[in-house]
Q: What sequence folds into this?
């Protein structure tokens, strides 16, 4: 199968290239130009870029199919231009056994949509007590190990887990939140939470835990990716850790560069997120740090929640927002606000997450996987429950019009989505 | 910003969910209406027919005897039919969702829901889902708001002090967990009280409380000095010993209202408490039963204020 995409605005964030041109795919990979194509796509007026890579997508399988299924969320992924995704281990049961990981990969592969990279549980049942069989999980296809949003209370277990992972060179992806300081909290501990009478999570719940984590990285040299930063203080800690040469990367969720605690309004449970939406100052610091590269990449932190889970008082509502289909438009909106080039903007959801995942996609170089997204940067998307493919309709952006409409998504040279 | 969910399209009170965001005129309308009902509560036949044929559902997801009873009396004096539901021991324990419970009661032709819930914001959720002719009155949600208590406090202050524009009001105790304090603070700042003080140890103050428009004091003697009104808050039993406070005794010593501390306030100062009181913890009996105390009149005014709120929302 030979695919020729012509007349597009070809943007390759890895090389910074942004020019009119053609892209060729042969045998599932990006190739040099050829004369005779089996299929030609006219990309006039469209941006042709590497398919998006999302480091945190909850597919809800196994075990949580009432919230979403692999089918619905893989549809949502390709509709959002996402061609590779990493899924955290907080399924039911958690991804702590090679058999579960193997089954998930087979199911995902059979659907032939986006590529799925499972992140294995760092501890058995995510309970933070016993280590998982990381080497066997890696053989089954796990690309990293994580606790998802489940805190690891015991710092000795954390230390040992990092040592063990470092032994094999496995990356560990962790959120930084001190379980005691965050205890009972559901919102950023500030004026808004005080007004609404919501129990707060202080910003130092993040920096205290991050300080501990960085100290353990210093001791173990484990490769740690810090997930979902939410505070300006954490940004500064990561900045210093990187300057020191620690093997640390980090990401921020797409909501946290656009929203802050004021958006809770009158207890909008769509804004109940983990970590919580923080102050305007934090939001602006995260946005800037992402532009500067201190924060490496953006992710959707896609978390489909059913209506029953959100039709509850704020504190009881299940945290999380659907995000796969909003990742592209919200990233474009962020890049525009920061005054970045399109290539630099897209790097945060293509080349940068590819580097963290250690995969060769996320670029348009010859020989790279033939994963592409073709989108109209000016066309508006109206975010509505009826049009979202994800089974989760839970997003603070319902009713918004956002620029950046995906027209075609290609995985390994096959068109997997067209609109 | 979304439209204030308490107001209808004409800017009238559709639901009473929080004092925050209510215009001064509506607060005064409620206080003035309450004043006209105080007479009713003193008559031999304590009834007016304003809510005849209407159904008021007391929907208490959190136990409360006093507030529920005063709402019940208020509704009955307006000639409404009152149905009391103690949800903690019925549907919630059977797993029925909050909105299902409300939808079921709505199908029984409710007109007014009086809601108490342990979770901040629960009455907002209910108000978003009731039918247009139904009204929701917040009877206390988590730490967020207790607007009828705030209004009866305002009523009491106005009754004794006439004018808010020169008042110093000191609110003492567990501000962190207090919906009563939040509601009163919003009411006082809206009605123009120039100095609202909160007095508590740091452990009982929420983050950024100054943003509500209050002055923070940790020293109670400095805080009650020259106050016209001293409002004592209830300290819950389970919070008297733990990470927030070492003991009830130590709290009483530093933050309990004793005669000698009250002597620092203005000679005509009034002392208020939302009840139920912990005598010897946040307030000494000599003060609670003393000449400055208006704690029992608060309860009486509370009925008139709740009659006012119900009659106003039912008329909008």
A:
């Amino acid at each position: 199968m030979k695919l020729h995409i012509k007349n597009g605005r070809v943007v390759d964030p890895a090389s910074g290239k942004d020019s009119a041109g053609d892209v060729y795919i042969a045998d599932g990979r990006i190739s040099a130009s050829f004369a005779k194509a089996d299929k030609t796509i006219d990309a006039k007026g469209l941006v042709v870029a590497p398919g998006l890579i999302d480091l945190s997508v909850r597919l809800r399988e196994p075990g949580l199919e009432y919230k979403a299924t692999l089918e619905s969320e893989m549809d949502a992924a390709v509709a959002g231009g996402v061609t590779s995704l990493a899924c955290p281990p907080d399924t039911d049961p958690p991804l702590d056994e090679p058999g579960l990981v193997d089954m998930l990969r087979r199911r995902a592969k059979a659907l032939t949509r986006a590529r799925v990279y499972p992140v294995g549980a760092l501890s058995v049942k995510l309970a933070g007590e016993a280590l998982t069989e990381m080497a066997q999980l890696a053989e089954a296809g796990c690309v990293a190990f994580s606790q998802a949003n489940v805190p690891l209370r015991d710092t000795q277990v954390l230390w040992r887990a990092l040592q063990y992972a470092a032994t094999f060179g496995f990356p560990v992806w962790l959120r930084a939140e001190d379980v005691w300081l965050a205890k009972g909290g559901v919102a950023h501990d500030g004026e808004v939470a005080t007004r609404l009478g919501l129990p707060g999570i202080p910003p130092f719940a993040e920096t205290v835990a991050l300080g501990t984590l960085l100290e353990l990285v210093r001791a173990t040299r484990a490769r740690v990716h810090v997930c979902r930063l939410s505070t300006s203080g954490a940004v500064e800690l990561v900045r210093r850790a990187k300057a020191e040469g620690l093997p640390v990367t980090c990401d921020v969720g797409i909501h946290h560069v656009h929203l802050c605690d004021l958006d809770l309004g009158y207890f909008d449970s769509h804004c109940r997120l983990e970590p919580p939406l923080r102050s305007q100052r934090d939001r602006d610091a995260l946005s800037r740090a992402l532009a500067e590269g201190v924060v490496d990449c953006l992710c959707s932190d896609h978390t489909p929640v059913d209506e029953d889970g959100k039709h509850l008082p704020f504190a009881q509502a299940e945290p999380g927002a659907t995000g796969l289909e909003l990742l592209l438009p919200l990233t474009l909106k962020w890049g525009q606000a920061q005054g970045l080039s399109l290539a630099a903007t897209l790097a945060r959801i293509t080349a940068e997450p590819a580097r963290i995942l250690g995969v060769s996609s996320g670029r348009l170089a010859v020989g790279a996987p033939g994963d592409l997204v073709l989108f109209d940067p000016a066309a508006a998307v109206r975010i509505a429950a009826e049009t979202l493919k994800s089974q989760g309709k839970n997003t603070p952006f319902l009713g918004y019009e956002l620029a950046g409409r995906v027209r075609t998504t290609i995985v390994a040279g096959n068109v997997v989505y067209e609109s | 910003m979304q439209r204030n969910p308490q107001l209808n399209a004409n800017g009238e009170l559709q639901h009473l969910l929080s004092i925050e965001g209510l215009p001064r005129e509506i607060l005064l309308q409620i206080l003035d209406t309450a004043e006209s009902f105080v007479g009713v509560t003193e008559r031999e036949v304590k009834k007016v027919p304003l809510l005849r044929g209407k159904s008021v559902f007391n929907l208490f997801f959190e136990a409360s005897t006093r507030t529920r009873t005063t709402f019940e009396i208020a509704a009955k004096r307006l000639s409404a039919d009152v149905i009391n539901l103690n949800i903690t021991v019925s549907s919630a324990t059977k797993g029925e969702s909050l909105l299902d419970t409300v939808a079921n009661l709505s199908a029984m032709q409710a007109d007014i829901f009086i809601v108490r819930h342990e979770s901040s914001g629960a009455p907002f959720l209910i108000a978003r889902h009731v039918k247009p002719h139904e009204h929701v009155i917040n009877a206390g949600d988590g730490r967020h708001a207790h607007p009828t208590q705030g209004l009866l406090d305002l009523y009491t202050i106005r009754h004794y002090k006439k004018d808010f524009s020169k008042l110093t009001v000191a609110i003492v105790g567990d501000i962190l967990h207090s919906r009563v304090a939040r509601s009163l603070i919003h009411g006082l700042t809206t009605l123009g009280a120039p100095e609202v003080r909160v007095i508590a140890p740091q452990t009982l103050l929420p983050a950024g409380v100054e943003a509500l428009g209050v002055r923070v004091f940790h020293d109670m003697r400095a805080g009650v000095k020259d106050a016209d009104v001293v409002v004592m808050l209830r300290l819950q039993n389970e919070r008297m010993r733990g990470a927030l406070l070492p003991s009830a005794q130590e709290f009483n010593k530093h933050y309990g209202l004793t005669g000698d501390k009250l002597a620092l306030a203005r000679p005509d100062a009034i002392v208020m408490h939302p009840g139920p009181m912990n005598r010897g913890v946040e307030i000494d009996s000599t003060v609670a039963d003393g000449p400055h105390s208006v704690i029992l009149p608060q309860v009486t005014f509370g009925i008139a204020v709740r009659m006012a709120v119900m009659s106003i929302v039912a008329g909008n």
